[in-house]
Write a structure and sequence with these properties.
Blueprint: H1 11-34, H2 41-70, H3 82-111, E1 119-121, E2 125-127, H4 131-134, H5 138-177, H6 192-196
Antiparallel strand pairs: 1-2
Helix pairs in contact: 1-2, 2-3, 3-5
Length: about 200
């Protein structure tokens, strides 16, 4: 009955999903922690880790988007009401936007920083700044700073709100609707439809 229909996400999609989720949550926590610290060597070190993790999220998110555009995904349950179907699609589109936009605005912010501090990617090498922004006059960079910080923070807070809603929706599907949507993104878990084949 289910022949030809993908029941769960593939291994690569699962790795992207859980890897990006873990890095994004860790980086949000890290950003909230060091944001109000006094400027010292410790804050600078945490900022370098924050930037390195963010750039990793950016690269992985672009790769995930390419993977998503070139590979099929399991369909939503046929009996899912239209409003839940729409909410699922909108939340997924918003997540795809955020996992690219949050680190991208961070990179833009750092590139346009008047301080000119390099981004040392996990202490391995200097990640290049966006040259068109790095070459701007200092006064222009100073004028952009507050706007760039605000955009980055608003996007991060959007993710902070969306993540628990996403988790709650997954739990709702698993334990109230019992349609096993959560199991599609978990490895080594058999679904009822699989056992019936």
């Amino acid at each position: 009955m289910n022949d030809g229909i993908r029941l769960r996400y593939g291994t690569v999609a699962m790795l992207f999903h859980w890897g990006i989720a873990a890095l994004l949550i860790a980086n949000i926590v890290l950003g909230l922690y060091f944001a109000d610290l006094p400027p010292d060597a410790w804050k600078g070190e945490l900022a370098q880790w924050h930037k390195s993790i963010g750039l990793t999220v950016l690269v992985l998110s672009i790769l995930r988007l390419v993977w998503r555009l070139t590979h099929s995904v399991p369909p939503l349950p046929e009996d899912l009401p239209w409003h839940l179907r729409m909410a699922a699609r909108l939340s997924h589109y918003l997540f795809y936007f955020l996992v690219v936009a949050i680190p991208l605005t961070g990179w833009i912010m750092v590139s346009a920083s008047a301080s000119g501090r390099p981004t040392v990617f996990f202490h391995l090498f200097n990640w290049p700044h966006i040259s068109v922004l790095a070459d701007l006059p200092r006064q222009q960079k100073v004028g952009m700073h507050d706007t760039l910080v605000s955009v980055h923070v608003v996007l991060a807070w959007t993710a902070i709100v969306l993540i628990p809603l996403h988790v709650a929706a997954a739990l709702y599907h698993q334990f109230i609707r019992r349609d096993e949507l959560l199991l599609r993104m978990l490895p080594y878990r058999r679904m009822r439809a699989e056992t019936m084949r």
